Amino acid sequence: MGFFDSEVVQQEAKKLFEDYQSLMQLGGEYGKFDREGKKLFIDRMEEIMDRYKIFMKRFELSEDFMAKMTVEQLKTQLGQFGMTPQAMFDQMNTTLERMKSEIE
Asked: What's 28's DSSP letter?
């Protein structure tokens, strides 16, 4: 069975995407949140980033051709912006840390 044929992988990908989309829509109102709302938003964003890192690691460790192609496509796309997957995660963490410091 291929990586993407797994029902577990499909469900996790769908849930991760839906959660991220939902949080991004909510993020449009971030400036209107009170302190506790901002903390909650940041916590949720950190949770999604952790889930995304785990999901990406599964891709990287998989022997499946399509999973390897997906990783290479991501690297190519990020490379067009002078980034690597690790640099992307580092930048996201930096942004979240800055957001935390602004509310403390």
From this structure: T
Q: Which long-range contacts (CB under 8 A, 24 or more apart) does 1-7 make?
A: 2/64, 2/65, 2/66, 3/58, 3/59, 3/62, 3/64, 3/66, 3/67, 4/64, 4/66, 4/67
Band (pLDDT 50/70/90 cuts) for residue 40 is very high
How far apart, in Å, are the Cα atoms of 21 and each of 31, 64, 84, 93?
18, 27, 22, 18
Q: How far is CA 52 from CA 19, 37, 102, in A?
A: 11, 22, 25
pTM assigned to the model: 0.84
For residue range 59-85, list pLDDT tens digits in order: 899 999 988 999 999 999 999 999 999
**What is d(CA 21, CA 15) in angstroms, rounded to the nearest whole number?**
10
